[in-house]
Amino acid sequence: MTTLRQISIGALLALMAAVSGAQAAQSAWPDKPIRLVLGSAAGSGPDIIARMMADRLYGVWGQRIVVDPRPGVAGILSADIVTRSAADGYTWMMLTSQLLVATNVYTNHKVNLARDFASISLIGTVPFVLVINPQVPAKSISELIDLAKKSNPNLRFGSAGTGASEHLCGIMFTRMTNTSMLHVPYKGIGQAVADTVAREVHLTYGVLPAVLPMVQAGRVRALGVTTPKRAVLLPDVPAIAETVPGYGMFGWYSLVAPTGTAQDILTKVSAEAVKAAKEPAFGEQLKGLGIEIVGSTRAELDAFRADQTKRISELVKAAGVSVQQ
Known about the structure:
Blueprint: H1 2-27, E1 34-38, H2 45-61, E2 65-69, H3 76-83, E3 91-96, H4 97-105, E4 106-107, H5 113-116, E5 117-132, H6 141-151, E6 156-159, H7 165-177, E7 182-185, H8 189-197, E8 203-207, H9 208-216, E9 221-225, E10 250-258, H10 263-277, H11 280-287, E11 292-293, H12 298-319, E12 323-324
Parallel strand pairs: 1-2, 1-3, 4-12, 6-7, 6-8
Antiparallel strand pairs: 3-10, 5-8, 5-9, 5-10, 5-11
Helix pairs in contact: 2-10, 4-12
């Protein structure tokens, strides 16, 4: 009995030491650099936001947040990398609207965003803009709808690729307005905008920072933004929803971590990310990208992700869009 008692006491002490050690490790977090993986290229909007956030959090913790761009398969590659990383608080990911769309459109992948990633904070949102060639005889969304119904299906709209967010913007528009347009996919939004200027396609949908210079130069005409309300950088351009009630598509940027990351670490990161996002200087820097700061709590991001997943999955299914990986 004495031996058994000694073994039991020893096991209990070992367990207490392990728990104490884990708690100490978490309380000391972070004590080494953190990796922030994103599925977009260096210099992109997500990359710029990630580096701005990394700089602010370095000032708080004194630990580097290393931004690691891993573009590929519309962001799915980055998600796959992070799911195979330890859930120790030292690997994060920027979850974007692009990646959510991609996981619904692309087939033969193992990523499950709801299962594999825990929410940290929604940083901000950005509208897409419906832009047309200035020679197209439509100066408003209602005129475009009328034109589409008369010329059906001769109008062509470009996008950044089949299944991209810009493609879904067009699908939602034609479905909700009972019109039809020919979709022309490109390998990036830059070429789609260039061909809109050249009138190879009549119109396209592009994220605000990508099309704003062309709008300001008068090379394309902005008819509407895809967010429910008007964009700060284009106050005179109406929201498409003003003409097509219920229409809404937008880009967004959030921070997540692998499922299994300690709750106290997630809470700590979320609190500091929200604080950073709410700083006036941070907001001023992002304003030039057309991004509206949100800075949500973890619970708010959970609800947002669930809503967006439902909307996008239903749209992709109804449109019958799928791409072989």
